[in-house]
Amino acid sequence: MSSPGQGTHPVADAQGGGFSAHSVRLAWILAVAYSLVIVYASVQPFHGWRTPPPEVLRFLTAPWPRYITLEDIAVNLAAYAPFGFLLSIGCGARYGAGLGVLTAAFCAAALSLGMEAAQMFLPSRIASNVDLLTNSLGALIGAMAAPLFAPTRILGGKLHALRHRLFVEGMAADIGFVIVCLWLLTQFHPTAQLFGTGSLRAAFELPAYFAYTPQLAFSAEAAVVLLNLLGVGLLVSALMSGTARRMPVIGAVVGAALAIKLVAAVTLAKSSAPLAWLTPGVSLGLMGGLIVVYGAVRIPRAAQLAAAALCIAAATVAINLAPDNPYQSIPPHLLARGARHFLSFSGIVRALSELWPLLAVGYLVYALAVRRT
Fold first, then answer.
1. Which ranges constitute the DSSP H helices of 240-279?
2. Counting beta carbons within 10 angstroms of the beta carbon of residue 164, is it exposed (0 to 12), middle (13 to 18) or buried (19 or more)?
3. Which residues pair with 20 in a beta bridge?
4. How would DSSP label each residue in 72-94?
5. Where is pLDDT greater, at 4 or 24?
6. How many CB atoms lie within 10 A of CB 146?
7. Which end of the chain has fewer CB atoms within 10 angstroms, the N or the C?
8. pLDDT at position 16 over 70
C-alpha cells in the first residue's frame, strides 16, 4: 500500500511528542469524521423540526434530573472520549501536549454544546446539561490519554512496535486498521443481528421488503454474518505484513467482536437471554465464514481488497432486504432508552453501524487505487 517507513518520522512538539506526521494527519481526518458521526447521531430523527422557545440555551440552567445512574454517566463519557483523544493528537502536535489536551477538550465541549442546543429544535430529543457535562468530561479524559499512546511512551512504544511487526507500513494501512477498530465498536449497538452493519431501514423508516418466514430469516442471518466476516477477515489479511499469523489475528478480531456483542447484550440491552443473538443462522454464518476466510487469505493482496469490498457491499444489501424478526427486533427508541440518558453513546454507535459499510468500501476502493499507482 505504501513503501516501508513512509511517514514514520516523529513530529516534534513542545513536549517532545513523538507521533509520526501521517499519524497526526490521520488523527485530524478521523476527528473530522467522528464529529460528523456525532452530528448525524445528535440530530436523529431527521424530521419533526420546530422553532424552539427563545431561550435556546435554557437547558444549561435547568434543574438536574432526580435520578442519575453510574451507567448514564459512563456511556456519555465513552461517547466523547474518542473524539477528545483524536483532537488531542492533532492539537498536541501543534501546541504541545499540555495545551493540546486543553484545546481538544474545549473544542469537544463546544461541539457538545452545539448539539445539545440543536436538539432544542427536535421535539423528540431533550437537551441536557448533564449530557453536556459528561460529554465534555469524557472528551477531557480521552484528550489526557492521548499522550500516553505516543511512540515515545512505554505503552505507546509497545503498541507501536506490535503494529509495525504485524501490519504493513504507511498511512493507508493505518486507515484500514482504524476501519477494523470501528467495526468492533459497531458491535456495541445492541441489535438482534450479529455483524448487521449498514441497516438503514429504521433510520429512514423504510418498510420491510419481505415478510418474515423462519427459512428466509435463517438464510438472511447466515448470509449477513458470512459475508461481513469474510469481508472483515480479508481486510485484516490484506493489512498484515506476513502470512503466518493471519488466521490467529483474524480469529482474535472475530473473538473480540463476539465478546463485545455479549457485553452489549448484558450491560446495554439488559437482555435476560444474553446469547439470544447466537441463532442457528448466525452460528452457520460464523462457521462458514471462518472456513471460507481460511482459504481466501491465500489469494493475492489486491484480490483480497476487491473481494472484501464486494462482500461488505453484498452484506449491506442483504441486511436491508432481510425480513424483520418479530421475536428478536428491538425498537430503535428502546435502543436509546428514551430521549435523555444513554442517547449520546447509543446514537453514536448506531450511526457508526449504519455508516461503517460506506467507510469500509470507500477505503477498500482507495487502497486498491493506491496499489495500482
1. 246-263
2. middle
3. 10
4. HHHHHHHHHHHHHHHHHHHHHHH
5. 24
6. 24
7. C
8. no
Measured distance CA(151)–CA(246) in Å, rounded: 24
Long-range contact set of residues 365-369: C-beta below 8 Å, sequence gap at least 24: 365/309, 366/172, 366/175, 367/1, 367/172, 367/176, 367/238, 367/305, 368/302, 368/305, 368/306, 368/309
Q: Say if CB 346 and CB 75 are below 8 A apart.
A: yes
pLDDT digits (tens, 9 = 90+) for 319-333: 999 887 665 555 444
Q: Name the DSSP class of 265.
A: I
Three cell numbers, residue 325: 424478526
Assess contact for 112 and 172: CB atoms under 8 A: no
Look at the alpha carbons of 284, 290, 291, 293 in this order and tell me if their dihedral is positive or negative.
Answer: positive
Whether this prediction's pTM lies above 0.85 is answered by no
Closest Cα partner for 309 from 246, 362, 250? 362
Here the cell at position 356 is: 461503517
Map out the domains of the chain as residue ranges: 21-161, 168-372
Residue 240's φ and ψ, nearest 5 degrees, are: -85, 150
Which residues is 240 bridged to in the sheet?
167
Please tell me the distance from the alpha carbon of residue 114 to that of residue 243, in angstroms, as a whole number: 47
